[in-house]
Amino acid sequence: MGAHRRRRRARGGGQGTRLTQPEPFGHGGGSPFGHGGGSPFGHGGGSVCRVQPDVAAVRRAFDYLVPEQHAPLVGVGTIVRVPLHGRRVRGWVVEADLVPDAVDVPAARLRPLLAVVSEGPPPDVVALCRWAAWRWAGPLASFLRAASPANVVAPGTAPEPEVAVYPTRLQPEHPFAGDVLVLEAPAAPRTGAVRPLMAPEGSTLVLVPSAALADALAHVLRDDGREVVVLSSERGAAELTRAWDRARAGACVVVGGRAAAWAPVPDLATVVVVDEGDEAYDDERAPTWNARDMVVERARRAGATVRMLTPAPSVEALVTVGEPAGAPAPRWPRVEVVDVRDQEPGQALLTRELADALHRAVDRGERAVCVLNRRGRARLLACRSCGELARCERCGATVAEREGALVCAVCEATRPMVCLHCHGARFRPVKPGVAHVRDDLAALLPRVEVESVEASTTVVPAAPVLVGTEAVLHRVPVGDGAPPVGLVAYLELDQELLAPRIRAAEQALWLVVRGARLLAPRPSPAAGTLLLQTRLPDHEVVAAVAAPDPTAVARAEQARRQSLGFPPFGGLAALSGDPDAVAAACEALRAAGVTVLGPVDDGRRALARAATWPDLADALAAPAVDAAHTVGRLRVDVDPRRAA
Predict the structure, then answer these.
(1) Which residues lie across from 185 on neighbouring strands?
(2) Helices 551-564 & 504-518 angle (0-180, nearest 10)
(3) DSSP of 311-346, one letter per residue?
(4) What architecture (CATH level 2) is domain 334-560?
């Protein structure tokens, strides 16, 4: 990290301007004590600031007096400590320099700040946090926490602004101007493809989906002579704090995952999103925000350019940036489509084409990876004697085989391997799981070691043939002396293509992209094979991979979602939690004119739809919906990835 000087800076001034974005929680100021009487501190003057407490159950801000000794250090974003109902809590100044006569509570009832703790997010990032809280229906404190340094940064200090001086080799005219969507081959090294997308001056935010890619990209950019700051959740708190502090000086490249989206750079010029459709940009914890959408809004506010690099563009990328920049279709591995409609009964998974491909890969000394997103031995069983499906004797749901017993996934009831209808003890798998397919593959390849990999697998076996859930695509070692992967086979792609989710096609395409990337570290990427077994050979995902034309999926999805009013052309939110809280939220949303489907699942789940996502955001920000959180546990998932 480059050295830089520090100087004192007076916080405050004109940083307390009210925002034009609708206030999602309607703070309105107020005393945190709610009682009459004068303040025991007897402050008759001084400025007033508005503080958002860092308390999960408190979703509103409160007004506090700013003592004169703290006034030079307090501005929008400053982290302070305040009294709140007999406690000393941390909080963020969200408005500063309020005139005491302009607040709703008399100055005599206001308590003063206890301490100024640390530097916090700059005013523009605080405003972005407000927008994110409104956009994804979450507490403002959650976003302010994500945008703050991990450790304390001395208040009242700021690094001296840096001036970017790049080596001559970085000065040639860049091939792209303005917002752009760039297609890349799955096997292409992403580090090299990012370099021409960087801003020639100012700061650039580069979002990447993994810590390993962040480190590799930082190494390449430092070799180019750029000042690189890595903000990745894999780093320690002290290192993250130093990186956050350096980013405040600007004239740098900030690389990282979701944490990098909040970097406090003052001179943002370009935002680069690598693999923009990767689900790593979604925070699965509530509030469920998306880093790609957030940095697009940040770039819009800062007047910065947006550049996306991806092998499989999403609908959101086409809507936000437009069609990809003119370039030939990226090179993909060789694709073999197996139409299992022509297979004999019972051979839909272990086809003749799969057996031939496995033998070819093993004979060349390469590894083969088979993907089936079904854990365990079998998710659906039928009695060999009477043909009845194995069902739970308590709730009637289908049961799965696990460790020699039948287990219900709904009520977790367990019983021996006995048919309830005819008392037979032999079952055949209708939907075999990974463990069962491993045994079948071992019988198909008698002299070859076959192992299974699931999400719970800690160490990937060094076997020439691996079969597993999607986790196997993330865990198979590549490079560094590991045997190359010569075959990636999707045993039942229809399970992904026909999944009851609005983003099923995009998610299936990305599943294939991850397999294609395993074939990358080879002298000739085309020598590797992607084998797709499906009953839908004309599906847009299969056709797009075979062409290859990865934009075909996004175009088909764009037309489909636009006609149905699904995101990004409409607002969608999944509600879940305690039945009383879900019912209260549904009633409030219906009163606001939002279409609500449900509740279902004993009142624990519902789906809210609106004509546009701003309409939905406004409805979710209404006080009546906010009050539903006090009734019981309520989770709001805006633009859900896995919703039906």
Answers:
(1) none
(2) 160
(3) SS--HHHHHHT-SPPS-PPPP--EEEEEEGGGSPTT
(4) 3-Layer(aba) Sandwich (3.40)
Closest Cα partner for 54 from 78, 34, 19? 78
The length of the chain is: 644
Architecture of the domain spanning 6-158: 3-Layer(aba) Sandwich (3.40)
Q: Kindly report, as residue ranges, where domains of CATH 3.30.70 are found in the chain.
A: 571-638
Q: How far apart are alpha carbons 292 and 407 in whole angstroms?
A: 40
Q: What would the mean pLDDT of 91-114 be, rounded to a whole number?
A: 83
Strands (E), 537-581: 571-577
Is the separation of the CB atoms in 434 and 340 below 8 Å?
no
Sequence-distant (≥ 6) Cβ neighbours of residue 587 within 8 angstroms? 624
Strands 48-53 and 87-98: antiparallel
Residue (of 285, 283, 303) closest to 293 by Cα position: 283
- Confidence (pLDDT) at 50: 93
Tokens linked to 180? 């752009």
Beta bridge partners of 7: 158
Q: Are 637 and 290 in contact (CB under 8 A)?
A: no
412-465 per-position pLDDT tens digit: 788 888 888 888 888 877 677 888 889 889 998 888 999 988 877 788 888 899
Domain with CATH 3.40.1440.60 in the chain: 6-158
382 near 389, Cβ under 8 Å? yes
Neighbours of 444 (CB within 10 A): 16
For residue 509, give both structure tokens: 């395409």
Give the pLDDT confidence of 274-289 residue by residue, as tens digits.
Answer: 999 999 999 988 899 9
Q: Are 282 and 288 in contact (CB under 8 A)?
A: yes
pLDDT at residue 293, as a whole number: 96
Q: Which tens digits make up the pLDDT trace of 124-133?
A: 999 999 999 9
Those residues whose C-beta lies under 8 Å from the C-beta of residue 150, and which sit 6 or more positions away, are 237, 238, 240, 241, 244
For the chain, what is the mean pLDDT? 84
Helix (H) or strand (E) holding 298: helix 291-302
Q: What is d(CA 433, CA 367) in angstroms, rounded to the nearest whole number?
A: 21
Which of 282, 284, 239, 286 has its CA nearest to residue 261? 282
406 in Cβ contact with 390 (< 8 Å): yes
* Superfamily of domain 160-320, CATH level 4: P-loop containing nucleotide triphosphate hydrolases (3.40.50.300)
Whether 507 contacts 467, CB under 8 Å: no
List every span in the chain annotated with CATH 3.40.50.300: 160-320
* Fold that domain 571-638 belongs to in CATH: Alpha-Beta Plaits (3.30.70)
pTM greater than 0.85 (yes/no): no
* Bridging pattern class, strands 414-415 and 405-408: antiparallel
pLDDT at 78 over 80: yes
CB burial string 251-290: b at 16+ within 10 A, e below: bbbbbbbbbbbbbbbbbbbbbbbbbbbbeebbbeebbbbb
